[in-house]
Each structure stands twice: as structure tokens, then as C-alpha cells.
Amino acid sequence: MSDERGRGRKQERPRTQHDFVQPARRVAYEVIAAVRESDAYANLLLPTRIKRAALNTADAALATELTYGTLRMQGFYDRVIAEAAGRPVSAIDPAILDVLRLGAHQLLATRVATHAAVNESVELARQVGSRAATGFTNGVLRTISRSSTEEWRERILADATGDDDRLAIEHSHPVWVVRAFRQSLRIEGREAELDDLLIADNAAPRVNMVALPGLVPAGETAGLGEANTFSPTGFVLAGGDPVHLMHDHNGRIRVQDEGSQLAALALSRARPAEKGERWLDLCAGPGGKAALLAAEALAVGAELVANELVPARATLVRKALAAVPAAVPVWEEDGTTFGDAHPEAFDRILLDAPCTGLGALRRRPEARWRKLPRDVAELSDLQSGLIDAALGALKPGGILAYVTCSPHIAETRGIVATALKKWGGAVRTLDTAGVLQGLASSPLDLPGDGGSGSVQLWPHRHGTDAMFITLLERTA
């Protein structure tokens, strides 16, 4: 095997009929490289690249599987690559490492023929690296192909330093994330579900849709898919392109996870609304929950204000709200100042706080490698500032829904506990579990939480993103 790492000046040679990479693999590689190079989001970039490449249905499905599969299992593949290459992945040129990860996924997790996976990976290496990198890539992937997936798993797991490390290797999650999930499940007395959770994180989620209530005629979603298990406003898409479906219905049917629907509905249906109530979506980008709240507000005669500090995300909020025939202003203010800027101004507030996104790893698998433990501390400071401001902007008797798409205790129960301590008797928790059970189409499996008033949804248990929801009432 060549000892080159793929660095150095690219060697040019005349192109031949063999200089070809199948379009689906090319698209997958481009997205994986963009995730690494520019922190791109695969779920946003991939559809664009598929459209630009004019992939047919079969190739689009292959590109999707190769992209998400590689990103999900990157941690495991890196261990295999390091073993096969005889060097740490940090010593491999990043572009060539992307090629090797993509090749390893094809060899270990798909039915792609070995010769196709290796040969096209070598051609990719030639195009993005040096001539020496092609020999290195060929050697590493040939070595990987000589052992089965199970043999590689046993070999890599033999080096595990403990149970958390074993789970991290096997299910391709950072150890710190595994430990955070374990801690959150332990609070519920469900620590034994950790394996199931990690497995669910690596399963491709179904496409879930929401039909904005009151804006989609009854029966119009018939035949489009199966009704959600819990959310009364959504369904699982049976097939077809969700983008076309959204366009055909002017955005009133749109992609939205069932857990996100439940989070918004927990606020709007916590108790009967009165005409003239003022509602606020404090951190509204990209606008999915805001659109659902706007439809709910329209039905009861409430007024919604959406706020989003980041201009690009505020634009997305406006686009989402265009589906609702109501005037919903979109402000671009600092959410941490709302308590001072708008004291006691709103009857209901949704705070879908910026977070690590560890609850949506099924949809954004790269997030597990992008976030670090120090990010939790930085986000916790922001979350504490936002919940304090939101409570300040809430009228006495008003309701705040604190929501995160993360089950990390420091971002969830810890934030709520700190707010309750600061506000003392002026804020109390509501029966969030009771509210959700009351609006859900089927009973939710929600273990007792010691009276905390919080609900944690899970991918393995509820089929949703891991949304955390707490309803708080300001009493004075």
C-alpha cells in the first residue's frame, strides 16, 4: 500500500472512458465534503444537489442513502479506516478521508458490488487528490473488503474501553452523547432503552407532514399517507415528492416532525384560548412551528407575533407564514431582551430554544460530529437568558412552552429548574403530560417524572425527534 496520504500537487493525465464516477456517488461525495468543509447541512444541501444533477428516482434514492449512511456511521468507519490504513484518520488528507468513508459505507452497509465501490472511489480520489492517493485509496478499501461487516465490528469493539465506549463504537455516536442520553433515560427509569435509542438514531426517519388545521379541507389528505400516531394534525407521507405536495397546497401541507407538531399544539391547546389573546413565537426560525401556531391562532381569533434574530432565518419564517391568511408580523429582535422590551405583553409564548439538536440526529446525522461538550455550556447560558426574558414578556396567568430538540439534561430540566428557582412563586409548572395526552390521537408512553411537569419524547419510543416540552404558567 502506498504511504502517501493524498497531499501534494495533483498529477494530470489524459482522461479516458474510465474516468467516470456514477452521478449518485458524485452527489453524495460533494455533500459529504461540503458538510466537512463549510459546515453545510446535509438535509438542506442534498435536495439541491440532486436537482442540479437531474438524478432520476433510483439515483436520487442511492445518493440519499450514501450521504446519510456515511454521515451516520462516520465514527465507526473512521475506526475501520484507521485499522485498515495503519494510521489515525487525522493523518489522512481530509478529501481522501471523505472518499474512504463513502467507500467504506458501500462495502460494509450496502449491496453495492465490491469492484464498483472500490473502482469509483479510486477515481474520486484521483479527481480530488494526488496520483499517489489513488493507490492509497485502493489499498485501504481492498483491505476493508477482505473482512465482513461483522468481522470488522468484532475487531473494532475488542478495543472498547468500557460500556459507553462500546456503544459509541457500535452505534457511531460520540461517547459524550451516549453518556448524555444515558443520563436522561436514567431519570425516567428507562436506562435499559439506551441501545434502542441509539439504533433508532441510525434509522432513516419517515417523511412526516403537517396539514395546517382549518386551512386544509377535511379529506384532502386522504390517500396521501397514514395519520400520525399522536399528532392530530399530521400524517406520514406514503410516497412521492414532499416538495411538490407542499407546492400544490401552497404550503398548507408541509414537512414537519410529529414531535414538533406536538410541541406547538401543547401551547395552543393547553387550555381554551380567548379571542384577542397575543401569542409569541420567540425563536421562530425556520418557521414550521410558527406556521402551525398561526393556523391555530387564526382559528380562535388570537394574534401571533413571530420573532427571529437572524435575518436569513427571519426570511424563512415569512415564507412559512405566507401559507396562513393572517397578518403575522415577523420581528428581528434579540430574544434575550424581550422581558425588558415587551414586559407582560403576551398571553402565550413558545420558546423553541437554540440547542445542540441532539434530538434530531436521525435527520441531521452530521450534528453528532459537529457538536462538542463545550457547546452545551455556551447554549445553556443562552437558553437561561431566553427563558428568563420569555417569562418577563409573559402576562400573569399566561403560558410559556419551553421546548428543545435535545434530551441533554443541561439544556432541558436544568434550564427549567434554574428558571423556577429564580422566579420563585411567580412561576409554576403545568401538567404538560396531561395536556399532551389530552390532545394526542393515541396514548403516549410517558413515564412518571417526579412531578417535574416535563415531557421528553423519544425516537425509539414515540417515533418522533427527541423533543423536550415543559409548560410553565406565570402566576404573578
UniProtKB/TrEMBL annotation:
Question: What Gene3D superfamilies does the annotation carry?
Answer: NusB-like, Vaccinia Virus protein VP39
Top-level taxon: Bacteria
Q: Which GO terms describe its biological process?
A: regulation of DNA-templated transcription; RNA methylation
Residue ranges occupied by any SAM-dependent MTase RsmB/NOP-type domain in the UniProt entry: 173-475
**Cross-referenced InterPro entries:** MeTrfase_RsmB-F_NOP2_cat, MeTrfase_RsmB-F_NOP2_dom, NusB-like_sf, NusB_RsmB_TIM44, RCMT, RsmB/NOL1/NOP2-like_CS, SAM-dependent_MTases_sf
What GO MF terms are annotated?
A: RNA binding; RNA methyltransferase activity
Arranged from A to Z, the UniProt key words for this protein are: Methyltransferase, RNA-binding, S-adenosyl-L-methionine, Transferase
UniProt cross-references to PROSITE patterns, sorted A to Z? NOL1_NOP2_SUN, SAM_MT_RSMB_NOP
- Which residues, by range, are in coiled-coil regions? none
Pfam families the UniProt entry points to: Methyltr_RsmB-F, NusB
Name the residues annotated as catalytic in the UniProt entry.
405
Annotated S-adenosyl-L-methionine binding lies at: 283-289, 308, 334, 352
- What CDD domains does this protein map onto? AdoMet_MTases (cd02440)
The UniProt family comment states: Belongs to the class I-like SAM-binding methyltransferase superfamily. RsmB/NOP family.
Tell me the protein's name.
Answer: rRNA small subunit methyltransferase B
Q: Which organism is it from?
A: Cryobacterium fucosi
